[in-house]
C-alpha cells in the first residue's frame, strides 16, 4: 500500500488519544516494525456534540484505505461511539478485504476474535475481596448485555459468588451504561437494597467505578474504609484519582502480540482459530485497601504535572485558534502546521493530503468521498530542525498508496491517519508519524488541532468561493450568460483596445459579422433549450477561427462578431468559405429536426482610416445585409435538389455525387412532421419525393441515409483516433450502442473490430 514493498497492517480505531487505544496501537507498532510490516492506523475522534455532519465526516476514514492491499486488518469495534459506523466498517471489510481480519475485545462470528479472559479476571477479583478483605456483601455494576466482554464479566461475578457461598441475589446486579454519569443512580439503587450497606461494589469498567467513588464520597462514605470499589480496564484516569482504583489491566501489549502472531500464521498458511484468549492482570490498589495512603502524594504530584501540561496545551491551542481566524490561504495553514510540529518534539512527520481541484462536495454518484488521485498539500517534518515542504504544484499520487512514493522510506512505516472534513465538505486526510512510532497523547489537543485545520480549510474554501463569485460577477458584466462570449459591452471595450493596439502597430483589423437567420423561428418551435444549444454550437464554430489576438462577442440575440488582426482579402474569403463549410458540417452531423441558417459580412479597418468600433461594427453589419447575403443552410440546397428531382429525375444520374451531401442533410429530416410544410412549399409531397428518390438511388431515403452515415463512420474509424462514442455522434447517432448495432448489421462486425481489422 505504501510503495515500499513492505506488507501493511491496517488498524481501525476510535478515540485514539485514550489510554487503551493509544497503548494498543503503540504495542502494535512495535510488533509490526519488529516483524518488517508497515502499520497504518485509520482513526476517528468519535461523536462530537451530536453534530450529524461531523459524525458523517468522521465516517470518511473508512474510505481512505485500499482494502485489497492490506495484509491484515485489526478492528477495535468496542470503542466506536458513532451511530452506524460499526455497521459501515464491517460492511466495507467484508466486501473488500482479502486478508485476516481480527476483532479486538469484541466477539464477531465473521472475523477472528482476540478476547481477554474477563470471566477469570472477575472471579479472581471476587476471591481477593472475600479472602483478603473479608467482604460479605458484594454488589455488581454491570453494562449492556449485548457486549460479549461485559456479559462474560457479569457471568464470572455470578458464578464465583455462588461457588464461594457468599450471599447472592440477582438484585445485587445493576445494569449501568459504562460511563461517568451512572454513579448517583447506581448508588441510590445499591443503598436501597438492604438495611446494611455493601462491603464492596464491583464495576464492569473503570469509568463507572470512578463515578461510584465520587458519589460515595459526596454522601460521606469513605473508600475503601466504608465501601470497597473496583473497576475493570485500567484506564489512565484509574491511576490519576485518589483513592487509586483497584482494577483489571486489559494488557494491550498482549492483544498486540496475539494479533501479530495470527497475521504471521496466516502468512505461513497455518490453520487459524476463530477465537483467541489472552490473560489479564489484576491491579490491587488503594480503592480496596491494598496500598498505603502515602501513594496519594504521588497521585497528586502526577495530577499537578498533568494539569500544568494541560494549561500549556490550552494556551497553545488558544493561540492557534486566534491565529486560525486570519488564515485565508495555504501558506497560512503551513505556518500553523509548522508551529504544531515544532512545539511537539515527538512528531517526526505531518502530511495534509487533499482531494484535487477542490472536489470537496460528496456527489451522490460516488461511493467514496475521496478521489482516486490525491494531492499532497504540505509535509512538515523534524530533522535537525523543523522544516516544511509546500510543493508547487502539489504532488499528485494514487490514493491507494496513501502518500507519494518519494515520501515513503524503505524501512517499515507507522502512520496515524484522520479524515479532514467540515460541514458537508470532505477535504482529504491528515497523516502523522512519531519518532518512537507511538502516538503522542497530548490529551485532546491533537483532536483540537485537526479540527482547527479543517476549519482553516473550510475558510479557504469559502474564500475561494467568494472570489469565484466575484470573478463571475465581473465576468457577467462583460460576458454573455449563455455562450460566455463577450456581450456588447465587453466586446466594445475589448475591441476598442485591440483597434488601438493594432493602429499603433500598423496592422489592419477585420470585423467578421454573422447572424443566425432562423434562431427566433427555432426558439418558437423547439424552445429555449434548443436555441441555447445552437448558440453554443456557433461558439465552437467561431473558436476554430480564433488566433492569438482576437475578440469574439455575441452582439444581440442572433448576431455575432469576430475581430481578427492582419487579414488580406483572399484570406478573408477563405475564412468565409471555411466558416460556411463548418456550419454545413454541423448541419449534416447533428441529429436535429432543423438546420442552422446563417449569413455573414465583413469590414476591414485599414491602418490610417479613422473609424470607431461602433462604425466598424455597423459597416460589417451593412455588408451582411446588402452584398454578402448567403444562406448556408443545407436545407436550402436540399430544396433546390429536390426541385430538380421532381422536374427531371431521369437526367440526374451524372449529378448524384454532387448533390449527395445536400440530399442527405435534407432527407435525414424529411420524415419529420415539422419540416413537411417546407417541402410542400416547393411542390413535392412526401410520397412523391420518396418515390423519386428510390428511382434514382435504388434505395429508400432511410437506407440511403444509413449507408452514407456508415461510410463516413468507416472513414473516421480508419483515418482518426476518435473514440467510438465520438464517431457515433459525428455521423448522427446519439446512442453509441445503437450505432454499433447498425454498423454490425451492415458490415458483419463491430466498429472496434472493424478498426482493428483495417489497421492490422
Set down the secondary structure blueprint.
Elements: E1 7-14, H1 19-34, E2 37-44, H2 52-58, E3 72-75, H3 85-96, E4 101-104, E5 112-116, H4 118-133, E6 138-142, H5 148-163, E7 173-175, H6 183-193, E8 200-203, H7 206-218, E9 228-230, E10 247-249, H8 252-268, E11 275-278, E12 281-283, H9 295-324, H10 330-343, E13 347-354, E14 373-382, E15 386-389, E16 395-398, E17 414-422, E18 425-434, H11 445-478, H12 488-505, E19 509-516, H13 519-526, H14 528-543, E20 550-554, E21 559-565, H15 569-589, E22 598-605, H16 613-626, H17 634-648, H18 656-667, H19 673-681, H20 686-697, H21 701-719, H22 724-730, H23 736-747, H24 751-759
Parallel strand pairs: 1-2, 1-3, 2-17, 3-4, 4-5, 5-11, 6-7, 6-8, 8-9
Antiparallel strand pairs: 10-12, 13-14, 13-18, 14-15, 14-16, 17-18, 19-21, 19-22, 20-21
Helix pairs in contact: 1-8, 4-5, 6-7, 9-11, 10-11, 13-14, 14-15, 17-18
Structure description:
By secondary structure, this protein is an alpha/beta fold. It has 4 domains: 7-99 and 304-463, no CATH class; 115-255 and 271-293, 3-Layer(aba) Sandwich (Rossmann fold), CATH 3.40.50; 479-632, Alpha-Beta Plaits (2-Layer Sandwich), CATH 3.30.70; 701-760, Homeodomain-like (Arc Repressor Mutant, subunit A). 47% of the residues lie in helices and 17% in strands. It is built from 24 helices and 22 strands. The strands form 4 sheets. Strands 1, 2, 3, 4, 5, 11, 13, 14, 15, 16, 17 and 18 form a 12-stranded mixed β-sheet that branches. Helix 9 (295-324) packs parallel to helix 11 (445-478) and helix 13 packs antiparallel against helix 14. The longest helix has 34 residues, at 445-478. The radius of gyration is 39 Å and the shape is elongated. It starts with 6 loop residues before the first strand and ends with a helix. Mean pLDDT is 82; it is low at 626-684.
Amino acid at each position: 500500500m505504501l510503495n515500499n514493498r513492505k506488507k501493511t497492517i491496517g488498524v481501525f480505531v476510535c478515540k485514539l488519544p485514550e489510554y487503551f487505544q493509544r497503548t494498543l496501537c503503540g504495542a502494535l507498532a512495535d510488533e509490526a516494525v519488529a516483524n518488517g510490516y508497515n502499520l497504518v492506523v485509520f482513526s476517528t475522534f468519535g461523536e462530537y456534540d451530536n453534530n450529524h455532519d461531523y459524525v458523517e465526516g468522521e465516517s470518511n476514514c473508512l474510505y481512505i484505505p485500499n482494502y485489497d492491499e492490506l495484509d491484515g486488518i485489526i478492528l477495535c469495534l468496542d470503542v466506536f461511539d458513532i451511530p452506524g459506523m460499526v455497521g459501515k466498517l464491517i460492511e466495507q471489510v467484508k466486501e473488500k478485504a482479502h486478508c485476516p481480519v481480527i476483532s479486538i475485545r469484541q466477539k464477531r462470528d465473521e472475523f477472528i476474535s482476540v478476547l481477554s479472559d474477563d470471566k477469570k479476571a472477575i472471579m479472581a477479583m471476587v476471591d481477593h475481596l472475600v479472602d483478603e478483605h473479608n467482604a460479605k456483601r458484594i454488589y455488581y455494576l454491570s453494562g449492556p448485555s449485548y457486549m460479549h466482554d461485559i456479559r462474560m464479566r457479569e457471568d464470572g461475578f455470578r458464578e464465583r459468588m455462588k461457588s464461594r457461598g457468599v450471599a447472592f441475589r440477582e438484585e445485587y446486579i445493576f445494569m449501568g451504561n459504562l460511563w461517568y454519569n451512572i454513579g448517583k443512580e447506581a448508588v441510590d439503587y445499591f443503598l436501597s437494597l438492604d438495611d446494611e450497606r455493601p462491603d464492596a461494589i464491583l464495576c464492569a469498567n473503570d469509568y463507572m467505578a470512578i463515578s461510584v467513588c465520587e458519589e460515595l464520597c459526596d454522601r460521606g462514605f469513605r473508600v475503601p474504609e466504608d465501601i470497597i470499589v473496583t473497576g475493570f480496564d485500567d484506564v489512565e484516569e484509574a491511576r490519576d484519582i485518589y483513592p487509586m482504583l483497584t482494577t483489571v489491566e486489559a494488557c494491550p501489549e498482549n492483544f498486540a502480540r496475539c494479533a501479530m502472531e495470527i497475521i504471521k500464521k496466516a502468512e505461513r498458511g497455518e490453520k487459524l482459530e476463530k477465537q483467541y484468549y489472552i490473560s489479564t492482570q489484576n491491579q490491587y490498589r488503594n480503592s480496596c485497601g491494598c496500598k498505603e495512603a502515602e501513594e496519594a502524594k504521588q497521585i497528586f504530584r502526577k495530577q499537578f504535572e498533568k494539569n500544568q501540561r494541560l494549561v500549556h496545551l490550552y494556551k497553545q491551542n488558544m493561540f492557534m485558534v486566534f491565529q486560525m481566524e486570519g488564515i485565508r490561504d495555504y501558506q497560512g495553514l503551513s505556518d500553523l502546521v509548522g508551529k504544531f510540529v515544532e512545539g511537539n518534539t515527538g512528531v517526526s512527520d505531518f502530511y495534509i493530503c487533499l482531494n484535487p481541484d477542490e472536489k470537496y462536495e460528496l456527489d451522490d454518484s460516488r461511493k467514496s468521498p475521496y478521489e482516486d488521485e490525491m494531492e499532497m498539500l504540505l509535509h512538515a517534518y523534524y530533522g535537525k530542525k523543523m522544516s516544511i515542504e509546500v510543493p508547487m504544484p502539489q504532488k499528485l499520487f494514487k490514493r491507494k498508496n496513501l502518500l507519494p512514493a518519494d515520501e515513503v522510506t524503505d524501512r517499515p512505516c507507522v502512520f496515524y491517519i484522520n479524515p479532514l472534513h467540515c460541514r458537508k465538505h470532505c477535504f482529504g486526510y491528515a497523516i502523522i508519524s512519531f519518532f518512537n512510532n507511538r502516538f503522542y497523547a497530548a490529551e485532546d489537543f491533537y483532536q483540537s488541532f485537526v479540527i482547527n485545520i479543517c476549519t482553516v480549510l473550510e475558510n479557504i474554501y469559502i474564500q475561494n468561493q467568494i472570489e469565484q463569485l466575484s470573478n463571475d460577477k465581473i465576468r457577467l458584466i462583460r460576458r454573455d450568460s449563455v455562450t460566455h462570449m463577450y456581450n456588447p459591452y465587453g466586446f466594445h471595450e475589448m475591441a476598442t483596445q485591440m483597434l488601438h493596439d493594432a493602429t499603433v502597430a500598423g496592422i489592419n483589423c477585420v470585423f467578421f459579422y454573422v447572424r443566425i437567420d432562423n434562431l427566433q423561428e427555432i426558439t418558437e418551435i423547439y424552445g429555449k433549450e434548443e436555441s441555447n444549444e445552437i448558440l453554443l454550437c456557433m461558439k465552437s464554430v467561431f473558436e476554430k477561427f480564433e488566433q492569438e489576438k482576437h475578440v469574439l462577442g455575441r452582439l444581440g440575440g442572433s448576431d455575432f462578431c469576430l475581430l481578427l488582426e492582419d487579414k488580406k482579402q483572399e484570406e478573408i474569403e477563405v475564412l468565409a468559405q471555411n466558416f460556411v463549410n463548418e456550419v454545413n458540417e454541423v448541419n449534416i452531423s447533428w441529429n436535429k429536426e432543423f438546420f442552422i441558417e446563417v449569413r455573414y459580412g465583413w469590414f476591414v479597418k485599414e491602418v490610417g482610416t479613422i473609424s470607431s468600433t461602433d462604425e466598424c461594427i455597423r459597416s460589417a453589419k451593412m455588408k451582411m445585409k446588402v452584398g454578402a447575403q448567403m444562406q448556408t443552410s443545407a436545407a436550402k440546397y436540399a430544396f433546390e435538389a429536390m426541385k430538380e428531382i421532381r422536374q427531371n429525375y431521369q437526367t440526374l444520374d451524372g449529378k448524384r455525387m454532387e448533390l449527395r451531401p445536400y440530399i442527405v442533410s435534407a432527407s435525414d429530416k424529411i420524415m419529420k412532421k415539422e419540416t413537411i410544410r417546407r417541402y410542400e412549399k416547393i411542390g413535392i409531397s412526401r410520397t412523391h419525393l420518396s418515390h423519386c428518390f428510390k428511382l434514382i438511388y435504388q434505395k429508400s431515403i432511410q437506407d440511403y441515409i444509413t449507408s452514407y452515415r456508415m461510410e463516413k463512420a468507416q472513414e473516421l474509424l480508419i483515418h482518426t483516433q476518435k473514440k467510438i462514442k465520438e464517431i457515433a455522434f459525428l455521423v448522427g447517432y446519439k446512442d453509441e450502442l445503437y450505432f454499433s448495432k447498425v454498423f454490425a448489421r451492415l458490415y458483419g462486425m463491430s466498429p472496434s473490430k472493424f478498426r482493428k481489422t483495417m489497421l492490422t
